Amino acid sequence: MVNYLLSDTVLYLSFLALKVVVTVSIVMFSLFFVMWFERKLIGHFQVRLGPMRVGPHGILQPLADGLKVFMKEDLIPANAHKFLFVLAPFIALFTAIIPFAVIPFGPEIGIWFKKPLSILGHPITWYITDINIGILYVFAISSLTVYAIVLAGWSSNNKYSLLGGLRSAAQMISYEISMGLAIVGVIMLSQSLSLVKIVESQFQFPFLIVQPLGFIIYLIAAVAETNRSPFDLPEAESELVAGFLTEYSSMKYAMFFIAEYTNMITISALATTMFLGGWYGPSFLPPIIWFLVKMFFFLFLYVWLRATLPRFRYDQLMSFGWKVLLPAAIANIFITGIVISLFFGK
Prior knowledge:
The chain is mostly helical. 64% of the residues lie in helices and 1% in strands.
């Protein structure tokens, strides 16, 4: 009996490990597409072609860039704290990938076959796992990214890197508060912290319809949280250096940008889950295709903003976060509470 239970446990853990490997592989592969997608789209916004030389329509350009970065010399400053200097990019990449453990890309696969499909009583799903505090898990892990930035700036033993790291940390903390408050209305409407339950509660209509202010706040805060234009102050300091990245080179330098693009995908997937109805859509497309279409629409907004808006000054960035977004997010919670009490209260 013990051997039977042990074999079942090993089989199920092997199945989970397979799901983790497949999910991470798909996310890493999609990074190449997102990088190419951004460069091509910005090229068309600026009336030029973008990458065209490497592969059909430049589709292999991200691979060429990756090989070039990998072959660069890996330098570490002589007076840097070597352990933390090396650890920082790994923290950034790790905290960017881990949230995908609870993001639901689709429903149970058995729905397609009109019958349940399971392994050892566990249904086969388009997500690794579902926990009842999924959204808190994502925000808790994502908030650790600030440690990578601060450690990168401090361990470089460079004054400009340290200042860039501190400014970046202040920016991320400031906008993370507004982003967290923006989804409180979604939680109030769904009555759950589980990402799967949040999607299922949007069966009739996406929460974007009843939470437009929350979506706008989330969109703006998400752009600032991922250090993207027009809030890309961390990589564009007034000293004309690369901020906390100044002393990094080769693959450690690339790991920060891989983490940035991974965070873009994470934020887009969360926006799809919480505001755009997740995998729900007309039946002529599979649920996971609807999820990916909505997610890449959000990624398109990222690129559109970068090609359109000028960069903020740092004082404008902080003032907008604390004096505009934060009060608006609190007002959205207050209004949502009133509406739920008046129309849905018992």
